[in-house]
Design a protein that fits this description.
Strands 1, 2, 3, 4, 5 and 6 form a 6-stranded antiparallel sheet that branches. The longest helix is centred in the middle third of the chain and has 15 residues. This protein has 179 residues and is an alpha+beta fold. Helices cover 25% and strands 20% of the residues.
Length: 179
Amino acid sequence: MDTHDKVPGCNGGSTGILVAIGANLPRRTGEGPLQTCHWAVAEIGRIAGIHVDAVSHWYESAPVPPSGQPPYVNGVVRAHGDIRPEALLSALQEIEARAGRVRTYVNAARPLDLDIIAMGNIVRARPDPILPHPRACQRAFVLLPLRDVAPDWRDPVSGDALDTLLARVADQPIARLPD
């Protein structure tokens, strides 16, 4: 266990717990991706010890890597609470399963994808979850909504600010959905 993986209260300053939400298939109960994302926000708020502080705007993005799948709806939740990374990962995977996600192959289309982007300034390579998320800084569909809820966030590994990270993914197609 990395010595950095326990931050009391997991508030991590102004950024707290950051969870990316994405969907590009209907949920098990038939709701479309945007409705599923709204449902997921409510479910995250029901995790014991978690309090949702902010929800980003919703965005539509092409799959990364390109795959011919339908576009994704993406957003980010900023929360705070006292929860271990492993417990949060387990709770998020349970929400995904209730939405009908079945893990088949990497980057498969799915009714719901919930990823822990960061938990304060925790940096760890193992055990799962890896923190911060190892591909978050390479994806506009994470960084743009992240800017909505944590504009001062810096990658705890590189120290790079969001503007720097966003400039590196400016070629990835993404559009904000109407409110």
